[in-house]
Write a structure and sequence with these properties.
148 residues; alpha+beta; Immunoglobulin-like; four-stranded antiparallel sheet; 8 strands
Length: 148
């Protein structure tokens, strides 16, 4: 067998190093954006993001969470949803009392597709569904320009 000094696996190793570097940077970015989980942990609520010509509408599922336990924060480009669900069940049967407690934290940081007017945001919460309507900034709206 003749050796030409070429390792046929060089390209493969180079590609693997590049993938490891890329995946590492993605993992770091995800960890940077997520909050530190509490002892009970947290869950990402399911969301829908809809964009109309005039507004961005975010709908999030927060089952079992009381409205008072929801916190919304808006920055220039993100909507942050934090919520806590606490549940306590107490059952007494045959002289034996059983108490169970459960707590779940929800967290989601949503990148908005455009700038929104924070002073005109409206949020409603009904039957475990949060809806946040955010009017677009004037400069973010699409304007058709007539050519003369």
């Amino acid at each position: 067998m003749v050796s030409y000094g070429i390792d046929i696996f060089d390209d493969f190793r180079r590609m693997m190093r590049e993938m490891e570097r890329f995946m590492g940077s993605m993992t770091e970015e995800m960890q940077r954006r997520l909050p530190v989980p509490s002892e009970q942990g947290f869950r990402e609520p399911l969301v829908d993001i809809n964009e109309t010509p005039d507004e961005v509408i975010v709908t999030a599922e927060l089952p079992g969470v009381p409205k008072e336990n929801i916190e919304l924060n808006l920055t220039d480009s993100t909507l942050e949803i934090k919520a806590t669900q606490k549940q306590e069940v107490s059952v007494e049967k045959g002289g034996v009392r059983r108490r169970e407690r459960r707590s779940m934290n929800f967290y989601r940081l949503i990148e908005l597709p455009c700038g929104v007017d924070g002073s005109k945001v409206k949020a409603t919460f009904n039957n475990g569904v949060l809806e946040v309507k955010m009017p677009k900034l004037e400069k973010a709206k699409k304007h058709t320009i007539k050519i003369e």
